[in-house]
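Let us practice reading a record.
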Amino acid sequence: MNIKTENLFEKLIDNMMKETNHNPRDYCFRYIVSMYPKEVHDAFDFPGEYMDNLKVEVFTEDGRNLKMDCAQLVMPKGDITCKSTINVEHQTYPIHDEKVGTIYDYKLFLIHKTNIPSNSIVMTNKDLGKEIINCETHDQLFKLHVEVATKEKISKRLKILKDIEKSNLELPRKEAMYFAYISIFTDEKNAKEDMEEIAKIFSKIDKIESNLELHIHQILKKMIKFHFRDDENKCRELIIMISESIFQKNLEGLTYKEISEIRMDELNQQMKQKDKQMKEIENENQQLKQQLKELKQQKEKGWNNYFIQKFLLTPN
């Protein structure tokens, strides 16, 4: 890279490091399942056979406007015995009563909207002790299915990614979802090791769809920042690692969002500079007005003194 390109890359990395990163696990789960619903369905072990993606906006009878993480139409396969819907909620924290009530609202909404059965599923990296939890809310009982992303499942997907990278084969879409699966569901104990491993794998994979690569980069960037939030140097090192090769071969694709933000930042800086200049001009104007006011007062005072001297103090 020439000096100009290097400077742009450094600025791009700086910008990535400064980006807000609110609730990244939830964001990344919703992001990837909305972009690749079928591939996520298969890669994340959702039940049934994927048929279609459903709108996630929910309007309850009491007037609330809610949003599901994922809703899909599925056909019979495995535990799913008839055409039905599934609502999959990402959950890496304990499930409290309010969340159970919300999931039940989602279930009722899907049943009323589609007139077919609906299955409620929670995806988590916590061992909740059961595959099915019998829940009670609003004086109603319903079953909540639990899909746990165990260490074994994560290790299996990690091995598959390693094998694909070593074989120099093109990365299929389904297997590309493993990057999201691992980064979202790895637990605190293994997170740093797992994230460094998949960052290295991702940086070495050459054969991958361009847009798919950018979407996975977005997920990895956010989850690296989350898992290494206490180690800025390592965080920066890994973000550089996953960004460098894409930057060299797909500058516009990788940097569209970031460059837009850089340009917006530059425009904001220009606006701030103009605001500063305007403020300085305004201050100068205020000073001039004050000087004019003082001169006017002095002039009036001079005329008053002249009047007094001329007409009041001068004897007839």
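A brief commentary: Residues 3-21+152-249 form one domain.
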